[in-house]
From TrEMBL:
Protein name, UniProt field: Asp23/Gls24 family envelope stress response protein
Low complexity composition bias: residue spans: 13-27
Superkingdom classification of source: Bacteria
Region annotation (Disordered) ranges: 1-30
Length: 126
């Protein structure tokens, strides 16, 4: 085989060349946000489990949403038909929520608490 000359050619593209890679804080910010969200989820699950152990609670779902400067505590709780909700409401407001705020180091901007009374009595089967 003999060597053949290579002709010069130009290639024009409408695609702009990639910008050179520069270090960015975005991955670190995303990682920190992800860790906070995981922590919020863990706190919410622990609060739900703790409330479920209360004798007057049939179900409790806790969610923590928002960012660190605007956190919202959500509770949807169903209590037994014959129970007095005032003690449980006091426990949630002054115990559960304040403990989570202390552990997170942040106060909730809002607390959305929904208490529902069960339709079933202790003697009824579900």
């Amino acid at each position: 085989m003999s060597a053949q000359p290579v002709h010069e050619s130009t290639f024009e593209s409408s695609i702009a060349p990639a910008a050179p890679a520069t270090p960015s804080a975005a991955p670190e910010v995303d990682k920190a946000r992800g860790l906070r969200c995981t922590r919020y989820d863990q706190m919410a699950k622990a609060a739900s489990a703790g409330l479920m152990s209360h004798p007057h609670v049939e179900s409790a779902i806790v969610e923590i949403s928002g960012d660190e400067s605007d956190l919202v505590f959500h509770l949807n709780c169903t209590i037994t038909a014959e129970s007095d909700p005032s003690d449980l409401m006091e426990t949630v407001s002054n115990g559960v929520i304040s403990n989570i705020e202390r552990m997170l180091g942040v106060s909730f901007a809002a607390r959305r608490l929904h208490f529902n009374r069960s339709l079933y009595t202790d003697g009824a089967s579900q």
